[in-house]
Amino acid sequence: MRDDIASANREKFFEVAEESVRGGLFLASGTALGTIILAIASILIARLLGPESYGIYSISLIVPMFLIIFVDFGISPALVKYSAQFRAEGKEYMVADIIRIGFMTKVTISILLFILSFVFADVFAKYFLNRPYIEDLIRLASVLIVLQALYSTANSVFIGSGRMDWSAVVAVLQPITKLVVALLLIIWGLGVMGALLGHIAGYLMGVAVALLFVVSLYRKYAGGNCKQRMRFRDGLLMMVGYGFPLYLSNLLLNFLNQYRMIVLAWFASNFDIGNFKAAMNFLSLLGILIMPISTALFPAFSKFELDTERETLREFFGFSLKYTLLLLVPGVLFIMVVSRELVYFVYGESFVTAPLYLSLLLVMYVFSGVGTIVLTFFNGVGRTKLTLWIRVINAALMIPLLYVLTMWYGVVGLIVAMIVAWVVASACGLVIAMKLLGKGVEWGYLPGLLAAGFIAFFLTRISLSLFNGLHVFGYLADIFLAAVVFIPSYLVLVPVLGGIDGRDIKSLYLIFGKIKYVRFFARLLLGFEELILRVLGKSSNFLKRK
User: Fold this and answer.
1) Which range marks the domain in which residue 14 is found?
2) CA neighbor of 110 nearest in space, from 59, 73, 58
């Protein structure tokens, strides 16, 4: 009997893992394309504007981005949960009800905040940002409060309804429109105003298409038979009751993001802010690795019962952490080793401090990536209050540290404050997760994984130093050389040093091998890793038997 249960748990483990990876890959493809286009837009805008004007453009977005955090109240995650739940229960008419209630609530709140931002733009510019000359930019940017509210609500509906393809379409249209409109207006001579108008145009296009999709979904769901629709008050209380703890935690996170920019506005120059923003743009590319994983893991963790499937859940949690780190560590170290060449090639040599900022931010990104997996686990098993407490710990450390260290050391001090806060918060989250799971997950692979990454890092840095000393290559060629050295080095070293073993090869192939569009590449890459393990006498020859 116990063997049957164990077999069923293993089957469920791989079923959930495969579904999570499939959803994550689909999200990653749409997100990657959208993020790459958005990164290209940001890069070209930064090059055309220069550090000073790019800093002003970034500052003009602070007020609307700050106010929009007060729009949601937990409605977005509730839309994801209840859309999926009601569809599974065959109550699609109730999905139509929560779509209607969610949109009405968020649009009403966002319009009120738009009016607040527009009317008091001069006050925000003078006393909030210490730059009274940007009040017109703030008034123009205020419309983003309404547009982003519509955009995020529609995206939640798509995810909850299983239409991630629609989410991907909108995610690509928005940056394409921004790229085209912003570049044309900047070249036309509108400068910062043109960049801002392009940003708004991107959201207008994305929202217009998203609303068309939402209307079609609403009509589909509203066509079901139902004698009594959900009352507005009942639906709102249900969604807020579920999502409010998550909203509070996200409120803290978004508040910290905007507080960070406000502190910079007080203690850093437009030039330094432009360099910091340029460095932050590169982190959005690494978000291609983390965001789809965390989005796919949220429903995956929800499929396990913490009390009855603790052992399987612990294994799945360890699986999620390990394979996230297998992607994250080399990604971070590679960008770190080419940070100077990457920044100068993309933005130009006028962004002189951005490489340093980028390298420091990457240290924080590793811990924030681990923290994201931990918080996704808490949310998935219904422990949303723990997510809130981790956010509180992060905020309690970051708020005073940001102010003091930025005042003393500028942007470098700000980044150090972010690192300290995330390290402590992520460590607390891991400790709590281990207690929930009953015992710790396996960490034996971590020294080998880190050693492989750092050895590849130093080999690449030495190679770049040798060729740069000969003044042979430009920045693009240096990046290519770094990839040629780093990637094979890491792939060879990670199995040699114990970062990956035969069990990992088997698990990864059982998951990726069933996904049509990545099966060939998975077999090629995993076959290379198993070849090295075979040479070392550590392989089970799993792929060869397949």
Assistant:
1) 1-29+268-442
2) 73
